[in-house]
Amino acid sequence: MSGKHINLTLKVWRQKGPKDHGSLVEYQAKNVSEDASFLEMVDSVNEELISKGDEPIAFDHDCREGICGSCGFVIDGEAHGPLKSTTVCQLHMRNFSDGATLTIEPFRAKSFPVIKDLMVDRSAFDRIISAGGFISVNNGNAVDANAVLIPKTDADEAMSSATCIGCGACVAACKNASAALFTSAKISHMALLPQGQVERKERALNMVAAMDAQGFGSCTTTGACEAACPKEIQLTNISRMNREYFAATATKRPKHKDGGAG
Amino acid sequence: MSIFLGSTVGKKFLMGITGLIWAGFVLAHMAGNLLIFFSNDAYNSYGHALTSGNIIYIAETVLILALLIHVGTAVLLTRANRQAKGSAYVVVSQGKKKATLASRTMAVQGSMVLAFIILHIITFKYGTYYETNVHGIVMRDLAKLISEVFSEPGYVAWYVVCLVLLGFHLSHGVGSTFQSLGLMEGTYRNLWKKLSCVYAIIVALGFISQPLYIFLSAH
Amino acid sequence: MANKLDNKIPSGPIETKWTNAKFNNKLVNPANKRKHSVIVVGAGLAGASAAASLGELGYKVKVFCVHESPRRAHSVAAQGGINAAKNYQNDGDSTYRLFYDTIKGGDFRAREANVFRLAEVSAKIIDQMVAQGVPFAREYGGTLSNRSFGGAQVSRTFYARGQTGQQLLLGAYSEMMRQVDAGNIELRYRREMLDLVVIDGKARGIIVRNLLTGEIESHEADAVVLASGGYSNVFFLSTNAMNCAVTAAWKAHKRGAYFANPCYTQIHPTCIPVHGENQSKLTLMSESLRNDGRIWVPKLVGDKRHPNDVPESERDYFLERIYPSFGNLAPRDVASRQAKYCCDEGRGVSETGKAVYLDFADSIKRLGQDKISERYGNLFEMYDKITGQNPYQQPMMIYPAPHYTMGGLWVDYNLESTVPGLFVAGEANFSDHGANRLGASALMQGLADGYFVLPYTLGNYLGGAKLDKISSTHDGFKAAVDNVMKDISKLMNIKGNRTADSFHKELGHVMWEYCGMARSEVGLKKALQEIPKIKEEFWNNLRIPGDVNYINAELEKAGRVADFIELGELMCRDALERKESCGGHFREEYQVDGEAQRDDTNFCHVAAWEHTGDNKPEVRHKEELTFDNVHLATRSYK
User: Fold this and answer.
1) pTM for this structure?
2) Less Cβ crowding at N or C end of chain C, within 10 Å?
3) ipTM rounded to 2 decimals
4) CB distance B182–A103 less than 8 Å?
C-alpha cells in the first residue's frame, strides 16, 4: 500500500457495435492511486466520461478477484497486461510508471466478435464445453467418494488443468486465435481422472471437432497462450489433447444400434 | 481417417510427421556434407554411392511427397489461422508475454527454406557436370562444383542466411512436432525441447561449416 | 395470513422427515415431464445444479443468467471448501454433529428440519461432485483430504486448493452444459430478470431484459426457480462480484414473496482492507488461512512499529486469548466483531487503523515455507498482487467485510416461497444458516438445494398443481412488460447529474455505518432517516448516459441501486425490530461481556416481510422456530 498516485494517457478501442468500425480514442487518467486495480482506474475514467455526458467504456468484469474469467482485454499488445499469471482485475497500477501511454484493445479473434468497445462474445467456449466437457453421471446415485482412489499426483495435475477460468486470453494472445489451450485443459482434466475414462475418446473427438467448428485456428506451439494465461495452464495440456485425439481416432469403435427392450 | 485429417489436430500431426522425415534427411545430408573435411574423393564417392542404386528414386519420391504434404498443409493451416485471427492488434506485444521469434515466423522461414531448397537443387543437382576418377571409378565431381560455387561471397552469404533460417525452422519445428504428436508431457517434456534445440544447432552449424570452410580456404 | 407462513415441515422424527417427505411427494411420470417447463434464474451452484438435475429428469428447462457465460456466476469465487458429514477423518463427525454445528453456528435462528436435511444430503454432494470429476485435494493414499473451518472442531471441509467454489461451479456448469447439448436446457445468457409474472396466484413466468439489445422479453413456464444469489452489495463494498444484486429477488418480493430476516448479513473476518475512495470491491482471503495463521494486534494503542519489530510479549493474539478452545477458528461473526473492537480501541494497524494482522511466521517456522506454500500458495500470491506485500515475510493485514447474506426470500421446507410455483434456492433464500453461516456451508447449501431438494419438491408441485396452459401473450405478461418499460423510462428520463455508483456508495456507507457489524437503535433510526433522502435524490438527480436499446451498463447499475435502496430500508427496519443480538445481527444494546445476547422468549422466530405496495410500510410476519432436537444454549466458543 504505497499511497502514491500516477497519471496516464490511455488509447482505448471504442467500437459502437459488432458491425461498426472501431478506432482508438485518447483519454487521460489523472491522479490514479498505485493501489488501485486496472479496472478501478478504468472505472474512474468512466465516472468522468459519464459526468461529461459521454458513454462510458464498455468492458466485461464481475468478481474482480481473478477467478470468474469475465474481464480481459489487451494492454500494449499483451492479453491481461504486462504481468504474468494475472487477470486485468488483479493487475494493479503500481506496475505502471507515471506518464506512460497505454493502448487498450479488445481480445481479437474471429470467434470472439466484439460486442462493444472492449467487450467480446466468448460463447464459443460454452459450445466447446457442451460438446463434451463433462462426465455423464446422473444425479443422485454416485458411489462413495472414496470408493475410487486417485493418486495425489494425478488429482493435482487434473486440478492444474481444471483451474482454467475460460477468460479467452489464450485465444487473444495466439496469432492463430487457437483455442487449443482452453480445449485441451478440459480434455486433460478429465482424461487424468478415473471418472473421465468412459467417455475419454468421445470427449476428445467431440471437443476438438467443436473447437474447429467454432472457427478457431490451429496450434503452432508459439507458447503465447501459456505466457498470457492468468492461471498458468501449461502447453503440456495441448500435447495431451493431441495424443488423446490421435488415440481416439485410431481406436474408435463403431456405434451399435440399441435393440428394443421387451 | 478423414475426420482425423480434417481436423486442425490431424493436420498438425501430418505436418509433424512430414517435417520429421525432412528433419531426418537434413541431418543425414549434413553428415554427408562433412565428408568434404576429409577429402574431395571421400565426398564424391559418397555422392556416387548414393546415386548409383535405385534407392535414390524411392528416397526422392518420399521426400518430394513429404515436402508437398508439409507445404500444402502449411498453406492450408496458415490461411485458416489468418482467417481465424481476423484483425491484428494495433500495438504488438513487446513484453514478457511475447512468443519466440522462431515460433512467430514459421511461415516466413518455411517459405524461404522452400525457395532455398528449389534453388539449391537447381544449383547442384542440375548444375555443371564435372567428372572425376576415384580409384578407377568415373563419377561426378561435386566437390569441384561446390568449391566453385562457394568461392563467391554472395552465394556463401545467401547460404549462411538460409541455413540459419533452416536452423530456426527446425528448432521450433522439431520441438513442436513432439507437441503435435502428443509426446510433450511428463518426464521427457523438457528433454524433447532441449534435444530439438541441440539438433537444430548441430544441423545448422554442420551445414554452414561447409561453405564457410570452402570460402575461407579459397581466399 | 397465518397460513401463508406454513413451513410444511413433515411430521415425524427429524431423522426420517426427509425420507418421508420424498415418499409422500407426488410424482410426474416421465412422459409428462416433457410437458412441464421450468424457468431457472441464475446459474451459480444452486441454479446450475437445479437446472442440470431438472433437465436430466426430463423437464423442459430454461436457464437465465446475467453473465456472458454461466461459468462466471459468483459461486466461482468461493475459495475455502465445502462441508460434508463424511467422517473420513474418523474424528467423530456425523450427520447429527454437522446439523448441530450448523444450528449452533447460526445462533439458533434456523429451522431444525431444514438444517438436518442439509446435513443429511451433504455426504451425497461430495459423492456426486467427485463422480462429475471435481478434482478435490487428495492424500498420498488416494483418499480425499479435509481441512478444518471456523465453528467446527472436526475436519469435514473438502477443498480444491483455494478454488473450491470454482471447481464445484464448473462441475455443475458442465453437467448443465451436457443437458444443453442434449436439448433439455435452453440457455439464455446476458439476461437480467426484471419482473416475476404471477397469474391466478401462481408464478408463471418472468420478464427479462436482454442486456445486449435492450429488448424486454417474456418467458412463461409452469414454475420458476430463483437462484439469484445474495445482496451483500447493498453495502457497495463487499466481497461479492460487481453484478451481484438483489433485483431478481426484490422484484419477486414485490410480487408477493415474503422477504425473511433481511438484517442477517455476514461480515467475513479475513478480507483485504480498504485502500481508498476509488475501490470497487473487497477481496476475501479464505477462512482456511485461519488454520495456520494467527490473528493479532499490538497491545499498545497507536503502536506504529513494523509488525516484525513488535516483540512477542507486546502482541495480543486476541482470538486465542478470548476463545481458548476455538482460538483463531472462532466463527465468522465472532471473529469479525473482536477485530472491530480492537480497531475501535485504536489498536488497529495499517494507515487507516482499520486492519489486524494475520501472521504465518509461526507456521512457517513449524512446517516450513514449502508446506505453507502448498496449502495457501495461490492466496499468498493474490495477496501480494493486490497489496504489493509478501505475506511470507510480514503478516497479512485483514479486516472484516460484507460477504454473505443469510436473509433472503422466505421459503417453506420445499423451498417454495409465499408465491406458489416460485421456488428459491441457494443464497437467495433464507433457509439454512439462521443468523450466521459457518464457513464452507454456502457451497453445501447451494448444491443441496439444486441437486437434492428441488428435483423432488418441484416435482411434487408440478404433480399436484392445476396449471392452465398459458402463453407469453397473456395479459399478465403484457402488464408486467409495461411495468418494466415504465420503470426503465423513468430511470432514463431523470437526466440529473450523479452516477448510479455515487448513490450506491452513499447508500453503502450508511448501511455499513449503521447496519453493519454492530447496530443500535439510535444508528438504525438515523439510517432510516438517511435512506429516504438518498432515495429522493436518486430519483431526481440520477444520470444515465447511452442508449436504452443497447448495452448500457449504467442503466443496469441504476436499476440495481434502486432496488438496493429499498432493500436497505427494509434491512434497517428488520434490524431495528429485532431487539436482540444473534449471529451476524449484533445490537449494541443487547450484549453480555461483548458477546451477543439472544432473546429466545421474544425473538425465537423468523421475521418475514410482506410488501404491501410502493411507498407503503412492509408488514412483518412471524414464523416461530421450535427446537425439539437441540437445546437452546448460549453460543460459547470459549
Assistant:
1) 0.96
2) N
3) 0.97
4) no
